[in-house]
Amino acid sequence: MAEGYELKALEVYQSLKTLAADPEAPPCVAANARKALASVWQIVNDLGLIFEQLYEYEV
Amino acid sequence: MKGGKRPLGFWNPKTETMPRAELQKLQLRKLQAMVEWAYHRSPFWRRKLDSAGVKPADICSLDDVRRLPLLTKQEWIQSQQEKPLYGDSLAVGPEVAMRYHQTSGTSGRTPLRVLDGRKDWEWVAEMWDYGLHGFGVRPGDVAYLPFSYGIFIGFWGAHYALEKMGVLVIPGGGQTTEARLNTIMELSATVIVATPTYALRLAQVAAENGIDLARDSKVELLIHAGEPGANIPSTKQAIQEAWGARAGDFPGMTECGTIFAFECNEQCGAIHIIEDHFMEEVIDPKTGEPVGYGERGERVMTSFGRGFIPVIRYRTGDLVEKIEAALCPCGRTFDLYKGGIIGRIDDMKIIRGVNVYPSAVENIVRGYHEVNEFQILISKAGHLDEITVRVEPGPEVPETAFTALGVQVGDALAAAHEGLRFRIEVADPGTLPTFELKARRLVDMRVT
């Protein structure tokens, strides 16, 4: 069973993936979302929750 | 030492204290994912696994890792030479990369070129965070990095890792050694990140300029990588005494981009492998068969981090001895390398039938505080091999003491090497090469 912070991390991760992939997002949104997604990937990978590759998101 | 022992802490308590059986299950899931990724995305790995007759679905247990073929540096470089710049080992097109680095590629050798995507580059820093936090670095520290910040990956990962931790980071590129010392003192640095050789060089220049780093600086922790040194007891002691601070060993490689192990603040004489991100085997270099705990062998690395260029069962050439995690009192369940990276399997020189390791010579020479720098020269006198150790005394050593110093060092080396006679030359102060990054102290003139 995932800890509370693990569930929150997964939610943030999925939200950032959606934001980073939004074709309507201007550069200030897309670039920073990708940077944030790269950071949150460390959380979900460190916790052994998700360890997918993210290059299709340019991350 | 200044500051005393830092508090125990885990960057990732979940995995750093995970029961071994659970940790191994995690390693297996990550190994399966990485092999699947490499097989389907990298032509190099598809070809290599097909030649070995193994498919990703064949990896059902950690023991199955031995069904995967070993990777050598020669193969990797050959791929890059045949298809410049990166070979066909890339799993992703270079247009998605945001970071490039390479090895030094000296003496006309092809450098190894590596690319990282954004999450790979963040992962490089993340591994450093495991180590830095484990050694006691905390927000509020002031870290100074006397590093050239060039195309060699060096301490770039440490820089970003320290920023992520909330440490004040002072980049020390483009400064002379004297200017660096001024910055360390003026900005009250508490952490230094450098090679062991350069930490000693800073201490020597400080002493020449009347600065007592152990007494007058605020430095409490020294973070070392790039070469053996912090794992060699005499060298570690020399650094710690010169700075009045703890010196930690953090070995890494350009091939994985970051550190794969770290010394925790217990300083038990071994380094913890970051086992939720790396799978490390130790093999007999001649047979390729695994060796057990407490036996020396060659380190074989599989990285679960970088996906741009998958690194699976990479023969590192490092000589190590793995021991069980419980031998460190910190509570981590990550296994250890006793003595860090002991040497290179091709480092050992045979001189008149006696095995000589450069790290063993260093451990003896650094036990003499009068020695500032040293060099090992191997030559031929007729048909016989000769080994000469040149020692450079510090400026405070009177010339009248040079002969006695040479005799003491020579006797100690002979006693440690089955009576092998070492020629000792005492060099004039300031004449031996000094190094900012990795030291190259051994010159084998027998090689043509």
Number of contiguous helices of chain A? 2
The main β sheet of chain B shows up as:
7 strands, antiparallel
The end-to-end distance of chain A, rounded to whole angstroms, is 28 Å
Overall radius of gyration of chain B: 22 Å
Task: Note the beta-strand portion of chain B.
Answer: 15-25%
What is the helical fraction of chain A, as a range of percent? 55-70%
Tell how many strands the DSSP assignment of chain A holds.
0
**Contiguous runs where pLDDT drops below 50 for at least 5 residues of chain A:** none
Percent in helix of chain B: 25-40%
How much is the average pLDDT of chain B? 93
pLDDT under 50 segments of chain B (min length 5)?
none
Average pLDDT reading of chain A: 93
CATH class of the largest domain in chain B: Alpha Beta
Report on the structure:
The complex is a heterodimer of chains A (59) and B (448). By secondary structure, chain A is an all-alpha fold. Chain A has one domain. In chain A, 63% of the residues lie in helices and 0% in strands. Chain A is built from two helices and no strands. Chain A has helices spanning 4-20, 27-46. In chain A, helix 1 (4-20) packs antiparallel against helix 2 (27-46). Chain A is elongated. Chain A starts with a helix and ends in a 13-residue tail after the last helix. Chain B is an alpha/beta fold and 448 residues long. Chain B has two domains: 1-345, Rossmann fold; 349-444, GMP Synthetase, Chain A, domain 3 (2-Layer Sandwich). In chain B, strands 10, 11, 12, 13, 14, 15 and 16 form a seven-stranded antiparallel sheet that branches. The longest helix of chain B is centred in the N-terminal third of the chain and has 22 residues, at 20-41. Chain B starts with 12 loop residues before the first helix and ends with a strand. The model of chain B has no long low-confidence stretch (mean pLDDT 93). Classes of the chains: A mainly alpha (59), B alpha/beta (448). The interface between A and B is medium-sized, with 18 and 22 residues.
